[in-house]
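Morning - zinc ion inputs below, output right after.
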Amino acid sequence: MSSWLNEMVEHYRAMKKTRDLSSVEQRFLEEKLRQLWWEIRQEIKSLPKAEQMRVYRGAHPEKVREQISLQSIKQSILKDEVLSHYSDGKCVCVRCGFSDISALSIDHIEGGGNRQRKGKLRTSTSFYNWLKKEGYPLGYQTLCMNCQFLKRFENGEHN
Ligand SMILES: [Zn+2]
């Protein structure tokens, strides 16, 4: 990134942090910010997409934070939904009733959970998405980590 661009982004960020303005000053600042962002946009238009994103994230750190938290909220809603479905609507471990969602996950009743997780369903979120999209197929249940461990031990699946 050119030092000019760096400076512009720094300037833009500093301007955005200005507080305690009268409404007239606020409007003035917003107009200035719009102009400045427009100039930055002209400057980065020809850059590769990744570089443009880097500048955008640098200039709008609050937007990045917003996006991350919105995403994590959506993920926890999805997890709650799927785990509830596989524990009769209660979102608890079906074996012991443990209810701390951070320790709960989906267990493949017949085993082979690890095989399932390969490929496109690597992350738990994509796995939950897949279960929901498939209309909650049979053969899965909600278990806590403790019970998953015990089950694996009982079935001799542990190494
Ligand atoms: Zn349990």
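Note: The two ends are 50 Å apart (CA to CA).

O.
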